[in-house]
Design a protein that fits this description.
With about 50 residues, the chain is mostly helical. The chain has one helix at about 10-25.
Length: about 50
Amino acid sequence: MFQVEHSRHRSVFNFLVNLMAGLAAYTYLPKKPSIDIYPKDLPALPPAIF
């Protein structure tokens, strides 16, 4: 999507510049993907008893 997966960089500096450019382009996305880490369909787990 932002051409970050290119793997034939000739130097580490070139890789970092390409990575930073991809991250900067990602920040301008109007709708960013997200992960719901708190599912609402599952019941709450009981507290652990030791």
